[in-house]
Write a structure and sequence with these properties.
This protein has helices spanning 2-14, 24-34, 49-58, 75-84. With 102 residues, it is mostly helical. It has one domain. The longest helix is centred in the N-terminal third of the chain and has 13 residues, at 2-14.
């Protein structure tokens, strides 16, 4: 019985993602992570969301305060992401957007 339970648990874990490829929004976030953008690092100019994901989804190519170049992402993935999750990537853009005006 124990062997059966372990085998059932293992097969469930292996197939947890359903064997499906990553969705278009996850592909965008993964491309940003692979390019070196880090979740929560927007104040340093290499934040995952403000400096990479949001600008890509919003079609912005020049990000104020960013320290890294945006990765190339298939426009079809961006369109598919927007269609599936319209609010994904709609947040603030850039590391300088919260700096006080002097």
């Amino acid at each position: 019985m124990t062997v059966f339970c372990i085998a059932a648990l293992f097969s469930t874990l292996c197939l947890a993602d359903g064997g499906q490829p990553a969705g278009p929004c996850k592909k965008i976030a993964a491309a940003c992570e692979q390019a070196g953008f880090i979740k929560g690092d927007w104040k340093k100019g290499d934040g995952l969301w403000r400096d990479c994901v949001n600008p890509i989804v919003q079609g912005i190519s020049s990000v104020p305060g960013a320290t890294k170049t945006l990765p190339a992402v298939d426009p079809k993935d961006v369109a598919a992401c927007k269609a599936k999750h319209p609010k994904f990537g709609s947040g603030a853009v850039g590391s300088e957007s919260n700096k006080p005006v002097q």
